[in-house]
Amino acid sequence: MSKIPEQVEDPNLQVTVEQARKLDPSAEAGGELLTESDGRNSGRIAAQLAKQVIFQKVREAERDTIYNEYIGHVNEIVNATVKRLEGPDVILDIGKAEGAWGVGTVAAGIVRVGERIRVVIVRVEKATKGPGVIASRSAPELVQHLFQTEVPEIYDGTVVIRAIAREAGERTKIAVMSKDKTWMRSAPAWA
After folding, report:
1. Which residue of 67, 107, 112, 134 could cross-link 103, Cys pair, CB 3.0 to 4.6 Å?
2. C-alpha–C-alpha distance, residues 112 and 164, integer Å
3. What is the pLDDT of residue 105?
4. Which of 146, 145, 156 minimizes the C-alpha distance to 180?
5. Residue 54: pLDDT band with limits 50, 70, 90
């Protein structure tokens, strides 16, 4: 009796029993044969998927780096450049990241793109688009920092700022106290 040659329906998915037994001696007809792939036949879609996964991991690492860098700078003054205006918000370039200054109608028309300003980092949030650095110019820390740099008595600790009340764009009130009793007798009227 002569042997009838086996036929496979799809040569990409199936092999003959003889070919299968060369790889696995216990292989039988209708069974599955597991083989290792060297990646040459991966295809365009698999390569695209791998590329997307790698880019996503890189973006996540960048987000974490920026978040970790700016979370330690909350309530600090930073120099920023106005990058663009987006509705009621001003987008700021604060170095390695962008910050948002939600000014609303208070500073409408006051800032221009490219202008350098000082802001306080109020909070840093983890968001899906990247870490959200929220800045403010109405925070009391901004006024305190400005007075510390401009008034030598506050800088050296002779005068202490006790409280700050601020209505951004309108007025600011500062309560101060002197640690030096002689300073109060010779202080100007504005103190």
Report:
1. 107
2. 28
3. 43
4. 156
5. very high
